Amino acid sequence: MSLELTPVQAVACCAPLAREPLSESDAEGIAPLLKALADPVRLRLMSLVASHQGGEACVCDLNDAFELSQPTISHHLKILHEAGLLDREKRGVWVYYRARTGALRNLAALIGGQAA
Questions:
Q1: CA 70 – CA 78 distance, rounded (Å)
Q2: How far apart are CA 101 and CA 34, in angstroms?
């Protein structure tokens, strides 16, 4: 029985790219995380949520930053959430998102880490 890691877990367990090559399975596990961030709208949304006052933002706080419909914004936020980059909490009719800063730190360490 093999244990399937989420993209966030896969990033957390890998040595920095500059230290040793990724295995094929690690690369396949991490790719969804990078794909989620590879879209310009999602990258901006990630930045907006992470930098928002209090570290969280409601969909209603994010709509005005884009010339996109609220359902489209929600779709992009769902992709970031499913990749493990955002946590979400429903409050009344709105959903609030918070960046998973640990996942971002692990991704930064994977990409930018120096060989020992």
A1: 12
A2: 15
Edge-to-edge strands of the sheet including 86-91? 56-58, 94-99, 86-91
Structural contact between residues 35 and 16, judged by C-beta atoms closer than 8 angstroms: no
Rounded-to-integer distance, Cα 44 and Cα 21, Å: 29
pLDDT at 9: 56
| Boundaries of every domain in the chain | 24-111
* Domain at 24-111: CATH architecture: Orthogonal Bundle (1.10)
- pLDDT digits over 46-66, tens only? 999 999 988 899 988 898 899
Helix 24-37 vs helix 70-82: crossing angle, to nearest 10: 160
| Reported pTM | 0.77
